[in-house]
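Record format v2
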Amino acid sequence: MGYALQQLINGLTLGATYGLIAIGYTMVYGIIGMINFAHGEIYMIGAFLSVLTYVLCTALGLGPTPLVLLAMLFVSIAFTALYGWAVERIAYRPLRGAPRLAPLISAIGMSIFLQNYVQLTQGARIKSVPPLWQGSLSLWSADDFPVTIGWTQLTVVVVTLIVMTGFAWMITRTAFGRQQRACEQDPKMAALLGIDVDRTISLTFIIGAALAAVAGMMAVLQYGVIDFTIGFIAGIKAFTAAVLGGIGSIPGAMLGGLLIGLVEAFWSAYLSPEYKDVATFSILVLVLLFRPTGLLGKPDVEKV
Amino acid sequence: MTAAALAAPSPLALRLRDALAVTLLGGLLALPFIGLVTVEEGGALAVRTRWSAWAMTLAAIFFGRLALRAALDAWHTRRPARKRAAFSSTDAVLRRAAGTSLLAAALLLPVFFGDNRYVIDTATTLGIYVMLGWGLNVVVGLAGLLDLGYVAFYAVGAYTYALLSTQFGWSFWEALPAAGALAALFGILLGYPVLRLRGDYLAIVTLGFGEIIRVVLLNWTSFSGGPNGIGGIPRPSFFGLPFARSAEGQTFHEFFGLEFSPMHRLIFLYYLIVTLALLTHALVSRLRVLPTGRAWEALREDEIACKSLGINTTTVKLSAFATGAMLAGFAGVFFAARQGFISPESFTFAESATILAIVVLGGMGSQLGVVLAAAVLVVLPEVGRQFADYRMLVFGAAMVTIMAVRPMGLLARREPTVRLNPARSSAP
């Protein structure tokens, strides 16, 4: 019982990361109808920027304080958002209206480029940082297995909640959110009504990248170990989360992320940790086979 | 000249301003990765600065952008004057001549370099990539399906031969069709749930599948040997004659009365891959003019039109996907037989990306383009170490650039292989 509860906590914190990345996939898919293959690399870039900021702060003599956390968040979001913008500008915008295959290939080229760019500039070896906060909070120890939540895990949950609240507010309440949703429904009509569709698409990439940067920072907090390949698997898993939740649906992406995190945690705990990636992938294939619209998605109607 | 034209800034000033803006953005992007680097020092990470590298990047971006703008402007002003012929006959003659001379070069290579192990080895590797490129060309170039895990089917072929030969004593020629069939079966099983859906799903599912195959091969030690791989894979023999100094029966050099030379086997392997590649080429060329191949090309151009003409798009896509998978399976058998040892390390995403780059750079649908692109991508890393390091970086950038400039690839033309009434349509 205690063990299962512990896995639940682990799975939810893991799922929070996937959910944040999945939102980037689902928003971009919603607005331009394409998978952003470079999104996993954007997450990896966010993680690298967090490590860089953390090391810089330590060099400046700042201890592990909430101030450092804020600095990591700020720097990582700012630069990663710039990368997200650049990806759209270079790999997607020149290909608007091109045959469908062209932007897919250019995005995968972008992904290969970014991965090798980080490898060549920052080195292929893993980067590890000491944990920001040690220790954990004991939740329940009546059973023989004490259930704990680490301070970093707690930070992850709190940061995700804050970011998600702000994001939900932006999508539902602000002018940009309305424009974004309008472009998702019908870009041509939105353009006729005076919405700058190109700008909205750019902003969608920027916001998706910012959320991926938060996810990258949380990966650094939780594991403290990153390398240039982490974007690949995380990207596939977050995409699975987006498909599971229903691609194009933002609450669906978060729900899918949490479910994928739970599946991964329980699969690793009770079955085999080596095959946890296989489990996620099987979910992707099963969802596509039996319910391609996902849990919360709308059916994809093809119009001529 | 109007006043407005006089008041407008000069083209040079505009270009300078544009280059400065791009440099500023590029410099910001490069700052945390090129300008700063985290290095391990005494067990902890420390930040080092690389201002000279950053400054050089800035200069490269600035002048690169200036040159690019100038080139683009020149190209745009020249463009209306140059009317491209849709499909000229000299073009076809040139292609045919290039193809014939490449074929002659391929067949005669061992005659001139028969004693040069390095040349023959590199040429054999090139042959594998050409065959893989032609196989993937069916999926990406003809049917317009993006397969990002092509190397998985290559792995299926390689492991099928490795296991059948080491465990059950199957020969190369017996295992070849079995491996091709198994790879095609994997293609059908994977493609069936996905190909009913939109194209993007196929891309991500194949990406995942390529990784899963590797994970399974790494962890299922009792089946695949795990990270240690499978060794001692028998080499193919010349119609039952082994390439050995001495064997139980007759060996190749004894039968032909030659002096024993280890080069015999390498040259045989080289001709083997050339033959396999030519068979692939013949198969693909035939398929292109058959109803199936024509349906592939039609599907690439317009899926909805295909549906309304009564083409079963799922079956047609599946046939392209399975054909590509089968060809990769054949190439995998050859790879296992040539290396004599295989491990999951040979089947990473980088390999899939390389094959995709060959198809994209060469021009989707162009058989000749694949050969040229494969030659560039295989031979360049041999020229120098620095090329090998930057290889994938350049591939990625080239894929983005080519999609922006010529979405169908460098040598491709978006012409159907078969057309109705050829006499009328080629008339002016």
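Chain B touches chain A through 61 residues (CB under 8 Å).
Chain B has two domains: 10-37+54-65, 106-416.
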